[in-house]
């Protein structure tokens, strides 16, 4: 069972599982899954959708409710129901910025080993697709030629969502579950100035990183999302500025047997000729 099966990582996970010959239940509020998957309606806030989604599932790829600052009260009752229904392995998508026991997904991460004998927590760095898909950064690049952040000179090991999905499939289907958390990054760290320069070079369109203060970014985000969520997101930029994401890991290579993809390759694949 793949939650968020129409999302950035869930759709990729479902497609890879199907390609490998696995039966997949694609669970989402809007069931438009990868071809070959069985669509099943699922809504975190409608417990009546849980039983049908869980029926016959032996492993789950977990994606939290969108925008939930404290997802544990919603997710943990579902996970207990999943265990009772016969699910033996759970792979949770979290974030490199959130350790076990930390805020938001950190609470679910901390609880997962006590709920399932087979588990993994994926903790990817920021997605490369934030600059190419429907994320606010990607829209700003397309519409204004601007990349807005409060990250200053901070560097991030941006990771390709395809690499996250590849690791997720190994974690879901391997003979032995990882039973640990896995921090996922790309092959190098880049600043937002670096990202703007690479997009400019690949597309031929000038893209500029405009540096905002924490307060300015928070207030800008608060026009689109709840104020507490805007505070959290702006705080993540501030943490990047302070060096929290300036690291790379060998996890993708170690788990999949191939190196992670770099941002230039992704930009050439997804942005060249499109801006």
UniProtKB/TrEMBL annotation:
Q: Which residues form the NAD(P)-binding domain?
A: 4-109
Which SUPFAM superfamilies would you find in this protein's record? NAD(P)-binding Rossmann-fold domains
Identify the residues that the record assigns to the NmrA-like domain, covering every copy: 121-245
A Pfam family of this chain: NmrA
Query: What Gene3D superfamilies would the database entry show?
Result: NAD(P)-binding Rossmann-like Domain, UDP-galactose 4-epimerase, domain 1
* Signal sequence range: none
Question: Which CDD domains does UniProt cross-reference here?
Answer: TMR_SDR_a
Q: Which InterPro entries match?
A: Ergot_Alk_Oxidoreductase, NAD(P)-bd_dom, NAD(P)-bd_dom_sf, NmrA-like
**What is the protein name given in its UniProt record?**
NAD(P)H-binding protein
Which species is this UniProt entry from?
Answer: Streptomyces axinellae
